[in-house]
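chain below, 413 aa
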Amino acid sequence: PAHDNLVLAVAARGTIAVAKELGRTRNALSGYLTRHDLNERVREARKEEPTVLSVVAPERIKADQDAAVMKALKRENAEYAKALATQEQFFQRVVEATRLPVNVPKYRPIKQSAKKPTRSVICPIYDQQFGQFVRASDTPGNQGNFSVKVFDERLARWVEGVTSVIRQYATAYRLEELLIPFGGDHVEGDEIFAGQAWQLELDPAQQVWQLALKMDSAIREVVRFAKEEIGIPFIALYAVTGNHGRVGGKRGGARPATYNWDWLFETILFDRLASEPIDEFAIEPGGSLFFRCAGHEFQAIHGDQIRGWGGLPFYGLSKHDGRSIRMHSRIHRYMLMGHHHQRAEIPNGAGETLVSGDWVGANNLSGMISAASRPQQSVIFVAEKWGVTGTERIYFTPADEAYEPTQIHGRAA
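prediction:
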């Protein structure tokens, strides 16, 4: 059959073309035809209508096909490499254009005396409710007053109070940890209760951004102080979210936990502080965060999980304690919470609940519950051997102002 194909091919295309296709010379092909007595058959085939058959060996066809495919792949690969290089250059230009300069502070920590007993410090920050606007006329006895301006004054007081208290303790103790838990309700939000928009100075987006900038400056100063003036080796920032940051409020339903203005504020703030010598950041939008301080286990929640109206829900605190142990399989020694705007330290067996104060004080809800808090925060000191050994209060209003009686009308006696 091979000779039949060869005869038909030579008859149709000639000796030169077939020899070239076979990779042979014309003389070599002519000699092959003569040796095998094929010339006469070629002449007979030329008298008939030729049927052209390929004389190329199957392996040669396969090799030619592979070579063509390889050539096409190499061409495509070169095109892809060129396109990828162009994309990488584009992305690099985008990165360079959007790159923000980060100034890493160069603090010079001082060395504390190794002879002093040790303590750890916790500075909880709860219920700032930045963006709320309180008119004195909306509160019983005109006791309320809160705005961005008032908040700025109280934030400066917080920084001054925290650093002063820590400085005093550092004279007697070697401070090993500074933990700052953010406990939620840092912004006021806008959908928590009906008519809330009437007591807003800023919308939630402005609340988040402005508060992040203000707290960025405040925390940087506290961190600088802790490193350069005291020499505290370990610093951590923790955070949970509150109900005031929840978008949609109670009627919002089961929305994602991160759909919360508090979470956005905490995320922006922690990102801005990333270059600081802070050893640990943690945000728990699910509402409960555990951390260790001086070897003791603390649980931080916002406090809206525990229902109460007009005071501290003591039964609710005990019930939450048991449920928390079952839910998390952890037995905390201390629980930090806020939400109720009434500072308290409530023992529960060998454990204790530390309820934080708030930054606002009396507002337009005070008349309904006949109660108003004195704005304050706390600084907590913890010893490995004893647990919580001391709590210092950072008041935002002077005592004379806090205890000033409500105006009385009528003739004096």
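The longest strand covers residues 174-182. DSSP finds eleven helices and eleven strands in the chain.
thats it, cya
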